[in-house]
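DATA SHEET
Item: assembly model
Revision: 1
Owner: S.N.
Input lines:
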Amino acid sequence: MNKLNLPLAIIIGALLVSGAIFYTKKGPTDDSVNWPGSNNNIPKIQTPGQGQPQPQGNVENVLPVSSADHIQGSLQAKVKIIEFSDLECPFCKEFHQTLKEIMDVYEKQGQAAWIYRHFPIENLHSKAPKESQAAECASSLGGENKFWAYIDRLLEITPSNNGLSPLELPKIATYIGINENEFNSCLNSNKFASKVNADTTDAVNSGGRGTPYTIIIAKNGAKTPLSGAYPVEQMKIIIDEALR
Amino acid sequence: MVTLSQILKNKKFLLLSILLFFSFLFLIIWIPNFPVFKLIIFSQKISLFEKFRFLITSPNILVSNSGAASIALTILVLILTSLNITLLVYFIKRSKTLPGRNIGINVLGVFPGLLGVGCSSCGSLILSLLGLSGFAAILPFRGIEFSFVGIFLLIFSIHNLLKSIANVDSCKIS
């Protein structure tokens, strides 16, 4: 019996992994998401893990911050915090609150600016790309403030892990004061799919492997990547160092 | 059979277990964030106290990035890994040899467990470092399955090591 223990352990392990692969491949996934009036013809956003070779990301490849970005704070701030986020990621939801607290402390006197870029990980959260597009629609219809109000509200109500119903997206728009018909028209047109895709590519090219992925650009221009959600106290130490 | 508690009554081995646990804990937190670690620890401008505070509070990063189940699995894997290595060291010290063909299991058990460590959302930490996060993403629990395999192998390895330790001073009658 002892001689069989090791092969048995390997077989059990292999069965677990192959059973998991079979389970995920066998039926329709949650990818077909229906929302009112949509044609569901959404371009696929390539993210790591969709059978693509892993890119060799480097933080120096991150696209420069510009006025085209969604920014809280000044473009001339000494420290820039570029956050790549997935609106269905529970840790992004938590980190969003952390960054709000950070900005309460560092935004005054132009010490720090928070730049939001999209990084929906579609193979984990199939609804996230559309939610990113929804936030862009809010921005185009209502201005920069409505962008931030939209993601604040979405992150407030989403249960995360692909739990938010697509029917909530226009409701969030109405909640923050955007015309629902105009919003639906924008969302159904998929006009911001390429922008979300471009942000995702930027995240991957700059080394992002998961969300939240943050790049701190220090006062001297040095870039430091952060993988995952950091607690407030740790972020303060990092930003204080970046300000020196 | 020698029990784990008997071995851990020896303060040296208890200390080794604890040191191994915290070493692995800090490794899994800091490997994926090495640039930040470098920025803070090697900074000329941050005080030693702040650096120490940053290090000591860094397990909060694990908490921020993992659900309760994932944290529990991680802690369990780290405890079993530390015990596994401690027992291996104890065996080698006592017998002055390696545990023969079982050494493969003893070492093998560590890796699946560590493969499964990672954040619930973004998947296995080690796999993403190896550029294989896509593989973890197709699994229903994003690589956490490896933790279960690792735990099984580690328990099996600990059991085997304890048996080997008990037999180290005797030759079995065939």
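QC remark: The longest helix of chain A spans residues 2-26.
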